[in-house]
Amino acid sequence: MSKQKLFTSILILLILIIPFLINNRSDDIEAIQLENSTVGYYQSTTCKISLIEFYLENRGSEQKIYFNNNDYADINCFGKITGVDKVNDTYFVSIGTNTSFSALIQSLIWILLLTLVPKLDDKNYLTYKCLYLLPFLLTYQHVSEIRFYSSSNILYNSEISTENLYLLGVFILNFFISLLIIDSLKGRIKNLSNYIPFLFLIVGTYLGSNLNFYLILFSCVGISFYIKKKKLLRTDKYYIVFFGFWILNFSNNNHFFDGDKLRGFSNSIYSTRSQLFWILIVFFTIRGFFYVVDKSREEFDIDKFMKNFLISLGLVVFFGVIGSLSPIVNFFNFFLFGQNKRGMKEFTSIAGNTWRGFSSSAESIGEVFGFLILIFLILVVNKKIKITSKYNLLTLVVIFGLIRSNNFASILSLFLLMTLYLYFRFYKGRNRTLLISLFILCTTIGLVTLFLNSNYSFNTSNLIYEATRHQSFYENIPSTNNQLGSTSKSHYLVLEAIEKNDVGTILLDESNFEAASSSYKFLFNVFTPELNIKYVPNLVGLISILSLFINRSEMWGIFIAKYNPSVFEFLFGYGPQQLNEYLFGHKIRLDVPSYKTSSLFLPHSSLLDLIIFVGFIGTFVVLLYVLKIFYKADKKNIFLYPSIFLLINFLKSDSILYLNSFLLILFSLQMLNNNFYKNEKT
Amino acid sequence: MSENNLNIEKNCGQNFKNEQIPDIVNDSNFVFINDPSYETVVLYDVDGNIVNVNSWIECAHYVNGGWSTSFSNFDGNIFILVTTISLFGIYVLSKKLFNFKL
């Protein structure tokens, strides 16, 4: 390790540890062993005992302790115990992690980590003029998402005045961070692509904030790009058209989305101000990211990229496991890596996400593991990397990570794509008869199996039935006892109509018609056309069958029940990262177990997420663009199969809602898209 | 005197009437009685919530629960401003004077 790297590593460690170490020695208040009788002591000495002091005193203790982060605590409580509570047999120790101070510390740590990327030249592709816009934009978020920040930061003050020290502090902090980013990217832009894998280790979400470090970093690049270029690109003009629709066709609602596992990359409210912020920040981030990928294309080193990917995901597994065993590591994982949610508390395979914390969902981390393994196998087959024992060990760790992610779709698609790759790679015959025969045979077997083993009528209508179950039909009927015991009468009527295959009757009731979402009504009309052409499959029926195969019937049914756009909203979407209207705009009755009713019900398909954000037209344009990339791509490009792998998996996951997964698919597609900026006309 | 009592005295003043803190947690019907001779004390919790207490016992009860009078002595916004500006200044100066590069 070079001297500079060692110095940077020590500095990072000090910045991380010191705020959790400092406490007032003169007050004679010391940490004591935590037990039932000392809970009161800790409750009466809040903000006096540091986390490290407490940990050193209790490290041998057999008590179950969990360190909570208290973002709302004031700065003088930073790194100190702000409360202790016992719930069942676990002591919840709250640690002050003031939002403003966390932003400063986390930024410094991540920028220092960025400086560990080796410089390749001394050029600065960014401009300081970026500081005229970015700090203002980032400060603007604090006056646009008032409800979010007022509940997460005790220092928050949204008043626009020169005496508002909070906003002044936010502005200066953002100015400083932006300056550091510009300076740290000098000479490193061309090497950044090789370090993209670390997006999955350093998640980058600020504690208590609805912002991600990478949004600042790449939007800084994006803004610099436009300042230097002084012109818009052709594709930007489409975005401006959408911009107009998102702002003009806008009606405020009072709902609030706290971000949950999407924190840092999701608009918390549906207001013109926050809409403007997210439209701009997403625009600059995407453009900046494309610029970085394009600039570093020549210096892209697949060997280095793979090494970094294996190290990054290996560390995800390592810290994930350690964090599940040690509460203090769990706490520092959350702080240091900028996780959206706290990591798993116990190392047991759960129905959800074993690598929770590092990834918002099991699906997205499973996709990343699968993506890496697929590239690795392709490279091994092509003898493009030397397999060393270090590689083998890390690959085993990554395979373990994939298995523990519980993402069987990822494993299955990995196997399928690898088989396809090997077939096309080694089948040298010019006669494609074998391929076509195999395809026809498989399709025939699949279809015959489907028709013989299942109920065709049920399969094609299942999606509509699922959507019907979750609509709030017959809400005006009072709840009474009925044949289904605990089920309300209104619910019973819905289930009865489904049973009798008579869903259409429900919509004849005027109140039901009004309660149904617009997408439900639309799809129902498509499903029951006046003119039914025999042997021509119904579109909704086909989607229904697909949803059954990939276990998405219920989730997509809930989506149809919830998604209630106007015509304009359907065509152009609600705007980037705007889920608010979708999540809360339309009342539904969730027919799920009671413990699940307060869960976050996302569409479970990135395609549906895209429709919510950019509408049908936007999604169509994006899909055309993706198809064009595949059509023009070099068929020997190493990212061809991994891109297909991601696209398939994204169809059944919400991965575009998570910044690192979103950037990964952009990266993979951009690596397929040769000479992007040469094709772009200004 | 225990640390806890010292803390109560620091926040609530001396216990002139030698009052004993009753077991309030286990008595759901307990009502604090105002002490006219006790000057109202403003207490804050870590979240900045405010409570006015009108008797020594009430004050002691809240202090035991982690409340204190010292909240307003510290302005976090000024701290953030001063820290950021200082770091900013140090960084710019080291760039200019020592040609420091990230």
Structural description of this entry:
The complex is a heterodimer of chains A (682) and B (102). By secondary structure, chain A is mainly alpha-helical. Among the domains of chain A are: 3-97, no CATH class; 100-194 and 211-295, no CATH class; 437-600, no CATH class. In chain A, 56% of the residues lie in helices and 3% in strands. Chain A contains 29 helices and 3 strands. Chain A has helices at residues 3-17, 39-44, 51-58, 99-114, 134-144, 146-150, 165-185, 213-229, 234-248, 272-295, 302-325, 327-337, 362-381, 389-404, 408-426, 433-453, 456-470, 489-499, 503-506, 510-515, 518-527, 539-549, 553-562, 567-572, 580-584, 606-632, 640-651, 659-672, 676-679, and strands at residues 64-70, 81-87, 90-96. The longest helix of chain A is centred in the C-terminal third of the chain and has 27 residues, at 606-632. The model of chain A is unreliable at 482-486 and 676-682 (pLDDT under 50). Chain B is mainly alpha-helical. Chain B has 2 domains: 3-69, no CATH class; 74-102. Chain B is 41% helix and 8% strand. Chain B is built from 3 helices and 2 strands, in the order H-E-E-H-H. Chain B has helices at residues 3-12, 56-64, 76-98; strands at 41-44, 50-53. Chain B has a two-stranded antiparallel ribbon with strand order 1-2. In chain B, strand 1 and strand 2 (50-53) form a beta hairpin. In chain B, helix 1 (3-12) crosses helix 2 (56-64). The longest helix of chain B has 23 residues, at 76-98. The N and C termini of chain B lie far apart (54 Å). Classes of the chains: A mainly alpha (682), B mainly alpha (102). Chains A and B meet through helix 2, helix 4 and helix 7 of A and helix 1 and helix 3 of B.
